[in-house]
């Protein structure tokens, strides 16, 4: 992790951060890292999360304004962008760290999805990226060269059974990032997703079998699972001017998990476990 002083990578930059709920939230850690690097920003979350979460504490700590917005409500998103305009004029970065699946919450397996809930999952966790970019663009608040990031998960590419319809939502999220990235590139605006390893947050822990997924990834990834603070450091580089030509990418931040094949220790344990059966 960068030291308390930071590197001044976001000095003079302004942004909008969605998805900080409590201090474990990845967006919360990202907001602190952005502040450390010299950025000013507004924070947004759904009204219900503002009632039950602790966002005011983060706002106080970072001097940020909190602007409520339920991203499943198009008018809310449109209004939010007007308020951001009043607050900052134009912005240089935007973080989408929003995910929610009623099917996962209520433990509905993939073969028995409730389709109304699935629509919610896709709307809140993926289509919302399209909405926030569209209405930010329509309000003309995106500076040329701005950087937009959304948080994804490797369930978009590989099968993680417990992640249910969130796997589909992440695949759509990554596709929207690519498609919008191609349309904003003429203004130097970048749109990327970061595919973060399992992280112990409120959304993460809400997935049945999360501890097993976390431990499996931790064992397979040569560098181990990155923390939310390490994810925040990576996001800072992508919001900064040091990555001006990185766009339309899904960038793995997973300690090497996506490329790793086997873990020797795990193989040895398995060999020992099944040794009796082979005899
Ligand atoms: N925790 C993990 O293991 C992990 C791994 C990879 C990617 N991610 C992704 O990171 C992002 C942040 O999740 P997190 O793990 O920090 O959990 P979190 O629960 O702290 O954050 C999820 C946020 O989404 C917000 N949200 C839900 N519905 C909303 C709505 N209708 N309008 C506006 N906001 C809404 C919640 O209020 C919450 O702040 C999500 O996209 C998640 O899928 C998480």
UniProtKB/TrEMBL annotation:
It comes from the Bacteria. InterPro entries: Enoyl-ACP_Rdtase_NADH, NAD(P)-bd_dom_sf, SDR_fam. Pathway: Lipid metabolism; fatty acid biosynthesis. NAD(+) binds at residues 19, 25-26, 70-71, 98, 170. Keywords: Fatty acid biosynthesis, Fatty acid metabolism, Lipid biosynthesis, Lipid metabolism, NAD, Oxidoreductase. The keyword Zinc does not apply. The active site is at 153 (proton acceptor), 163 (proton acceptor). It holds the Pfam family adh_short_C2. One of its GO terms (biological process) is fatty acid biosynthetic process. Its EC number is 1.3.1.9. It catalyses: a 2,3-saturated acyl-[ACP] + NAD(+) = a (2E)-enoyl-[ACP] + NADH + H(+). One of its GO terms (molecular function) is enoyl-[acyl-carrier-protein] reductase (NADH) activity. Belongs to the short-chain dehydrogenases/reductases (SDR) family. FabI subfamily. This is Enoyl-[acyl-carrier-protein] reductase [NADH].
């Amino acid at each position: 992790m960068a030291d308390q002083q930071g590197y001044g990578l976001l000095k003079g930059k302004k942004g909008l951060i969605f998805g900080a709920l409590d201090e474990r939230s990845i967006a919360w850690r990202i907001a602190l890292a952005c502040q450390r690097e010299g950025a000013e920003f507004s924070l947004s979350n759904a009204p219900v999360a503002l009632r039950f979460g602790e966002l005011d504490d983060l706002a106080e700590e970072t001097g940020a304004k909190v602007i409520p917005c339920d991203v499943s409500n198009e008018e809310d998103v449109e209004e939010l962008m007007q308020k951001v305009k009043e607050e900052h004029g134009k912005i240089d970065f935007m973080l989408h760290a929003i995910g929610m699946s009623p099917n996962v919450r209520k433990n509905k397996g993939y073969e028995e999805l409730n389709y109304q809930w699935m629509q919610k999952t896709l709307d809140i966790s993926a289509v919302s990226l399209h909405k926030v970019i569209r209405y930010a663009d329509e309000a003309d608040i995106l500076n040329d060269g701005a950087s937009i990031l959304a948080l994804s998960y490797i369930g978009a590419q590989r099968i993680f059974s417990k992640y249910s319809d969130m796997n589909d939502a992440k695949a759509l999220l990554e596709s929207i990032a690519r498609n919008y990235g191609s349309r904003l590139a003429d203004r130097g605006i970048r749109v990327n997703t970061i595919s973060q390893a399992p992280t112990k947050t409120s959304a993460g822990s809400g997935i049945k079998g999360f501890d097993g997924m976390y431990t499996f990834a931790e064992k397979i990834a040569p560098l181990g699972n990155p923390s939310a603070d390490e994810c925040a450091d990576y996001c800072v580089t992508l919001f900064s001017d040091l990555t001006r030509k990185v766009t339309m990418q899904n960038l793995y931040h997973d300690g090497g998990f996506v490329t790793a094949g086997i873990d020797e220790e795990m193989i040895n344990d398995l060999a020992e476990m099944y040794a009796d059966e082979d005899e």
